[in-house]
Amino acid sequence: MAMKRAATSAIRAFASPSPSVLSRHLHASPGSKKIVGVFYKGNEYAAKNPNFLGTAERALGIREWLESKGHQYIVTDDKDGPNCELEKHIPDLHVLISTPFHPAYVTAERIKKAKNLELLLTAGIGSDHIDLKAAAEAGLTVAEVTGSNVVSVAEDELMRVLILVRNFVPGYLQVINGEWNVAAIAYRAYDLEGKTVGTVGAGRIGKLLLQRLKPFNCNLLYYDRLKMDPKLENEIGAKFEEDLDVMLPKCDIVVINMPLTEKTRGLFDKDRISKLKKGVLIVNNARAAIMDTQAVAEACASGQIAGYSGDVWNPQPAPKNHPWRYMPNHAMTPHISGTTIDGQIRYAAGTKDMLDRYFKGEDFPPQNYIVKEGVIASQYR
User: Fold this and answer.
1) What sequence ranges are listed for the domain D-isomer specific 2-hydroxyacid dehydrogenase catalytic (predicted)?
2) What is the DSSP letter of 74?
3) pTM for the complete prediction?
């Protein structure tokens, strides 16, 4: 029933396309296709696990299948700059597959060069590496493997909440540095029980996080454009907050669970961060550009934010001089939450399924569309 509601909602998210949009067609034009995949290098780790599918070496495990159907499959990790490997293939590729973990930035300029491009696929969830307006104007289809790694990300968020609350990182660093100073850890370590946790966004990941937090006996709040089903809301024990700026000062812990759009870009700026509870903890596995990078670093330094954790950066990979690498009281990692081995198996299978549908001229699952033949889904506008 839930899947049926999601599909119905997804169908309604698309309005009729503008007559000015010249669609390049969702379904594959006849003949062999040139498909380019951009993935991070597995290097020596690629051979250690046969299910390590999200690497350039394993390439989602679909090379043999694609080539058996007569298609060309180019895979690279070299994605940035005018002389990169990806740039060489932009003019004649038909399909581009990328991931949020090593994103190929699809700019308006690249879309203009890509005369044969029909389909942009995210192996995983997210589309902020793509200029959606330019993709829509070019009549392209953009899709993701919706739901493929929501469990992976929700579990990771719960872990990060606990890491911050219990002040885990300084204790770990003491051990590997040969130190022992209990006081330096304990003076800012707390229990999660009884704390107020608010999620900004309560879609698939946000709901799963709230469900996993319930046994910790927290006060659970959520802000979202849609109120969740009353039965589920009651089961979780979460309270809906209509006004984000009313919810935030109530929270000991804030978790970001919304997509990056033009409306959410820079949402947490210096002014909004200043209105949070002093000493708030923030977890952000959504998208880094939702936060003002420098404002977060300054708030961590001042103590306005007592701890910040996440796996998303702007840009990615993060440069060595990125301020979040050096700000105090952080528990940052590379973008890893959604690329567990289990998540990779799911998004590899989902990508293969969409390619198969594309070759056969069949529609994708409705919830997977971000742009369908030039029309952007409402939640991404």
Assistant:
1) 65-338
2) E
3) 0.88
Task: Render pLDDT for 112-165 as a digit per residue (tens, 0 to 9).
Answer: 999 999 999 999 998 889 999 999 999 999 999 999 999 999 999 999 999 999
| 329 labelled binding-site residue | no
Summarize pLDDT for 283-328 with one digit per residue, the tens: 999 999 999 999 999 999 999 999 999 999 999 999 999 999 999 9
**Could you tell me the domains of the chain?**
34-146+341-380 (3.40.50.720), 149-332 (3.40.50.720)
Q: Any known ligand binding at 205?
A: yes
Q: What pairs with residue 223 in β-bridges?
A: 200
Distance CA 93, CA 86 (A): 10
Tell me the pairing of strands 196-200 and 95-98. unpaired
Which positions are annotated as active-site residues?
A: 149, 287, 316, 335
Please indicate if the annotation marks 144 as binding a ligand: no
233 residue type, one letter? E
Give the bridge partners for 114, in sequence order.
none
Any idea what the Cα angle at residue 60 is, between residues 314 and 158, rounded to 5°? 50
Peptide bond between residue 170 and the one before it cis (omega within 30 degrees of 0):
no
53 assigned to a ligand binding site: no
Q: Tell whether the model's pLDDT for residue 75 goes beyond 70.
A: yes
Q: Confirm or deny that 261 is annotated as ligand binding.
A: yes
And the tokens for 301?
């330094």
